Amino acid sequence: MKNINLVKVFVLVMAVCVVISSCKSKQPKPAYDGTQTRPTTAAQRTAASRGVRLQMEECEMLAMDETANLRESGNAISDRESFAANLALLDARARLAQQLEVLVNGLIRNFNQQYESNQQMSSVAKAGQIQQAYFEQFLTNTRSICRNLYAREDGRYNAYVCIEMNADQMKSMYRKLRDDQHIGIDFQEHLFLQELEKAKEEYRQQLLD
Fold this sequence. Notes:
Helices cover 56% and strands 13% of the residues. The protein has helices at residues 2-26, 42-50, 58-63, 81-115, 123-127, 132-135, 167-179, 189-208, and strands at 70-78, 143-151, 157-165. 18% of the residues are buried. The radius of gyration is 30 Å and the shape is globular. The chain has a domain at 58-200. The chain is of the alpha+beta class and 209 residues long. The chain has eight helices and three strands. Strands 1-3-2 form a three-stranded antiparallel sheet. A hairpin with a 5-residue loop joins β2 (143-151) and β3 (157-165). The model is unreliable at 23-36 and 117-127 (pLDDT under 50).
């Protein structure tokens, strides 16, 4: 009788093991995370070929807002919190100055082609004189609309900022360009701002494509 009971217990344990093993085998394997030597399932192969999804940081997203004024984001890493924030701000201003160089030179060339005759002095030559460094003078007082600081595992700080150039600053830039004897843009303020807005939208769309 005792032997029979032992047999029943053994059979029951084996049955439970079979059920557990079956349940584990039916659980889906996680998506390929790059820690394996190679993907082993169809889902893992798909994830591996697709790559890791990149997400924009908050300040970077604000810089790409199509409805906003001229904006740009900056990023920097440093051992000191204040240095990281200041370097990120400088990076954002340099990037915005570079954006202005592209936009203003482009719209001046377009305006020259549309509205000026070939006999008049070409604004294309003037546009070539406007370099990134020229526009940095207009960005000294640009306000930061986003600032995020992250503490990294290695003890350093990772800073993100987003700055914005408001309408008054853009008008001030236009007047400076207009009055500069070496540049002297040739069209009205409202047309300049209108064309700058169109150029900004095209520039951001190119970045998103």
